Amino acid sequence: MGSGTNVTAAAVRRRDALDRELERFSDAEAIPGLVALASLNGIPLYAAARGYRDISRRVVMTMDTVFWIASLTKPVTTTAAMQLVEQGRLDLDRPAAVILPELASPLVLEGFDAAGAPRLRPSRRPITLRHLLTHTAGITYDTWNANTARYVAYAGLPGLFTCSNDSLRTPLAFDPGERWQYGAATDWVGKMVEAVSGKRLDAYFRDHILAPLGMNDTSFRLGPAQRKRLAAMHQRQADSSLAVIDFEVPQNPEFFMGGGGLYSTAADYLRFAGVFAGARGGAGILKPETIAEMGRNQIGDLNVVRLESQNPDGACDADFFPGMVKKWGFGFMLNTTAAPTGRSAGSLAWAGAANEYFWIDPARRVAGALLMQYFPFCDHAALAAFSAFETGVYGLIKEG
Questions:
Q1: Which among 26, 39, 71, 264 is annotated as catalytic?
Q2: Is pLDDT of 7 > 60?
Q3: Confidence of residue 279 (pLDDT cuts 50, 70, 90)
Q4: Which partner from 31, 264, 305, 399 sits 20 to 30 angstroms from 122, CA to CA?
Q5: pLDDT at 240 over 70
């Protein structure tokens, strides 16, 4: 055989190995099902659908399955905000209360007194859009912050997935700019986009991001065609089995969750990821300099920290690449050194609550998304599947 034939044979073997690795998770029903999609230079590199979109009815997973993509919404909302920053209609460093009076005079939760009442004080500085985009505003999720969880219970606030405005009425966990901690800040960014654009967030996304990119299966509201392909939500049970549960983001909400309300497909999300993967030149969505800025460290000496779960049914502890220093850009986590999977230093990534994961490697012009639909977030099997997928994708682009 000539060397060209050997290269082809080696590539086929690596692809077959990745197929088998992903099949292993679904065949053993360690996960309900998955859709995996990766691109190189904007061209499809690998695609696979394994397992079931609904294990109770044994409905087979397909590449066009629609998923609730949860926090994969956040980079889309961030992109909308950065479009308005480019236009001078939003400012990264002005107090956000200029746009949203609800964010004026924020209070910081310092703890609880002996009677169990919250101890609150005025924030030492105003919240800015920069704080909101980088998760340094002090706005946290009750899933990841014990004091916030206690306050939500004390005040009787509705859960965030109700998409009710009252669900956002939590105090700050710390003064803006002092720490990084993941939370609902991007929901407020969505409200800022609405306030300055004069459009509901669904309409803004459609007109300025989704339609221009051809993301026709992405929306806050499910249409009839999407419902036919919708993955059921699953929950890991105490005996490690999986069961279908009732779950749907409200279709007529008080506010569209800029932090986690979208439904989409893997193909649609890879179209979006291509904007940042170095292969589409921004696709007219953002200026190249804005794309570059979104992929730079925006939190200075602060670091992305381990997320410690307060709700084991909903989420496990989360720490991607433990031991690695990680930063946050605008909308994305940034790994500061090369990852063991093959991901280059300075790549962009994040994940969604029902085990949806993506990464974008501008240096190698690779992007990938692995979508599943079950709780808890960062379940061991989901993380293992994501690691196997990402490692396998880099194996496909090896020379020889």
A1: 71
A2: no
A3: low
A4: 305
A5: yes
Clarify whether 46 is annotated catalytic. Answer: no
Question: Can you read off the two tokens belonging to residue 386?
Answer: 């994501």
| Mean pLDDT value of segment 134-154 | 97
Walk me through the domains of the chain, giving residue ranges and CATH numbers. Answer: 3-69+232-396 (3.40.710.10)
Which of 182, 263, 269, 394 is labelled catalytic?
A: 182
326 has catalytic annotation: no
